[in-house]
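Board notes, transcribed. Complex of a protein with manganese (II) ion.
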Amino acid sequence: MKNTPELRTWLDDLKLEHPVVIAGPCSAETEDQVLSIAHQLKDTDVSYLRAGIWKPRTRPGNFEGVGAIGLKWLKKAKEETGLKIATEVANRTHVEMALEHDVDMLWIGARSTVSPFIVQEIADALEGTDKFVLIKNPVNPDLSLWLGGIERLYKSNIKNLGVIHRGFSSYEKTKYRNIPEWQIAIELQNRFPDLPLICDPSHITGKRDMIFDVSQTALDLNYDGLMIETHMDPDNAWSDAAQQVTPESLVQIMKDLKIRKETDPEGEYTTKLGNLRAQIDVIDNTLIDLMGKRMKVADEIGQLKKDRNVAVLQTKRWNEILGKMILEGEHHGLSEEFVLRIFKAIHQESINHQEKILKK
Ligand code: PEP
Ligand code: MN
C-alpha cells in the first residue's frame, strides 16, 4: 500500500484548529437519549456524533443494541444539530442500512478487525465510497492484522480512510481495560504517516477518570483525533457505563488538553520534540512495567528456593544471563559497560526481593 495525500483529505477538509472529536454514547438507547446528547454536543469541539446501533457483546444476554431504528434517531440528530453521524458496522447489511440513512462515518469494531472474512465483506460493501471509514485495531496486539484490514479497505478504493486505536485485550488484569501498547500505534503511524489516527481513550481505559491522561498522551504522540464515549447520564448507560463522560466533562477535557499546533513553523521543533518525548515516556513506562513483572517472577523463584532451602545467589546461572544479554545488547548498539551496569542493578534488586522472601 502506498501513502497517498488523499488519505488526509477528510481531516484537512474539516479545517479544524483542534483534533477531530467524535463523541456520543456507547449505544443508542432511545430517541430522546440520542437527541438530548446530540443537542448537548452541538456548538462544542465535537464534529461527529457516534452511537452504537449493533453492539458486539462478549457474552450473550447483555444489551445488544437497538438495531436499525437507531439509524433514524441518528439521522434526526444530524438534521436537528448539523453534527455528522458515525456508527459501527459489522457486516454487509449494516453497511447497506447505514448508507441508506446517510451515515457520514462508519467504523469497523475491534472484534471485526480480527476477521479477514468480515473485513473483506465490509470492504466489498463499501467499494468506492466517499464516506469516512475508520478501522479499529484488532482486540489482540497484532499489527499485521490491523495493516491487513487497512489494505483490504484501501483495495476497495475507499479514499477517506483512518484508524482508531482502542487498545488491546490481555488475560492479565491491568489498570487499563485494554492495554494501549502505544508502540504498535507508533509503528503504524511510522509506516503510514498520512493515515489519520484517532485515539479511543474510552475503550483503552474503561474508566472515565483516566480518559484525560490517555487523551493527552495521544495528542503528544501527534494523533489526529479522539473518540470519547459521552452520555448525559453515564452511570445509567445501557453499556460501558463506567467509561462514559457527560457532555460537560467532555467540554472540560477538551479545554484542559494541551494541543500542539503542527502548522506553526516556529513550533515545528517543539512539536517534533514533544512527539519524541512522548515516545520516550511511553517506552520508560514500559520499562518500569517490565521491571515490575520481572521482580514478581523473582519473588516466585524466591518462594521456590525458600521451600527447597536453596541459596539465593546462583553464580553460574547469573553469568549465563549476563553473557547472553551483552551479546543481545551489541545487536541493539548498546555498550558492554552499559548492559553490565543495568543488569547488575536488576540482579541486585532481584536478590533484595528474594532475600525479603527468605527472611519472612
Ligand atoms: C464501541 O466503540 O462502542 C466498541 C464496541 O468498541 P470496540 O470495537 O473498540 O470494542
Ligand atoms: Mn463502548
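The radius of gyration is 24 Å. Residues 1-5 have pLDDT under 50 and may be disordered.
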